[in-house]
Design a protein that fits this description.
The model has no long low-confidence stretch (mean pLDDT 94). An 8-stranded mixed sheet has the order 3-2-1-4-5-6-7-8, sandwiched between helices. By secondary structure, it is an alpha/beta fold. The protein starts with a strand and ends with a helix. Strand 4 (64-67), helix 4 (74-81) and strand 5 form a beta-alpha-beta unit. It is elongated, with a radius of gyration of 21 Å. Helix 8 packs across helix 9 (195-215). The protein is built from 12 helices and 8 strands.
Length: 269
């Protein structure tokens, strides 16, 4: 882990990545950061011991550049970087919807680019990071990206053609679960429970269900059937979910998220 890695535009996810890398064994002295506000850069330096630099300095000094700015800000960042990034730098993009070809067209010929879609559970080392290679990225480049993002959770390699679908499922995925927990908490209050008790009941149920999904090896249908006794409470609840089209609504929501990812790729902000 002697290579220098720079995180450009270090927000919450970028900081979580830095923190995870340090816990995984990277030396803070090998990690560079850039931030829009000088006080943010100083905060990162004080908290993690990393080195704040300008975007141009990061491009010159780091072996790997991780671009974590928002998709709508990526063009401005690349305009600033283009003349400073040598072709042997590995560029990792974390911007939703933007294909590797976008970077390859703006950087030096043959620059290796890897596209990564991670999610906010990186903040608690439970991220799902989906990794795709650009035209010039090798197996070693993908392995290096996996090593970096593996510090904050799991990684999965997919063809870039599947990235928009992965963005809809896992990139945006945590928000769907938060939305469901919010709705179930409100239901608990309607049923007569205090908010804090409803919250605790639902959150622990969600954690337990997630661990069972991960560790049991059972299909989710089987796990659901194990809870659903004949003429019981659960089947009555599931009937109402089906009557209200919850399954269809989820499918439509994921399609909308995928379509928005494609719009971002086409430059529609």
């Amino acid at each position: 882990m002697t290579q220098k890695v720079a995180v450009l535009g270090t927000g919450k996810i970028g900081e979580a990545l830095l923190s995870g890398m340090i816990r995984a064994g990277w030396a803070p002295t090998d990690l560079l950061v850039t931030a829009r506000r000088p006080e943010r850069a100083r905060e990162l330096q004080e908290r993690h011991g990393v080195t704040p630099v300008t975007n141009q300095e990061a491009a010159k000094q780091a072996d790997t550049l991780i671009l974590t700015v928002k998709p709508q800000d990526m063009g401005t960042l690349l305009d600033e970087l283009t003349s400073h990034v040598p072709a042997d730098r590995l560029v990792i993009s974390g911007a939703a919807g933007i294909p590797t070809s976008y970077f390859e067209e703006r950087l030096a010929p043959n620059t290796p680019v890897v596209r990564v879609m991670t999610n906010t559970p990186a903040l608690v080392d439970e991220a799902m990071s989906v990794i795709s290679a650009g035209s010039h990225a090798t197996a070693d480049h993908l392995a290096h990206a996996e090593e970096i993002f593996g510090a904050v959770g799991k990684t999965l390699r997919v063809p870039e053609s599947q990235q928009d679908a992965c963005t809809a499922l896992s990139g945006s995925g945590p928000a769907y679960f938060f939305y469901l927990v919010e709705a179930m908490t409100d239901a608990g209050i309607l049923l007569g429970l205090p908010r804090d008790k409803a919250h605790d009941l639902i959150v622990q149920s969600a954690i337990g269900a997630a661990v069972m999904l991960r560790d049991s090896g059972e299909h989710p249908v089987k796990l659901r059937e194990n809870v659903t006794s004949p003429a019981g409470t659960t089947i009555n609840a599931i009937r109402e979910l089906e009557n209200h089209g919850v399954r269809a609504a989820l499918i439509a929501a994921l399609e909308a998220a995928r379509d928005r990812s494609r719009e971002l790729a086409s430059g529609n902000s």
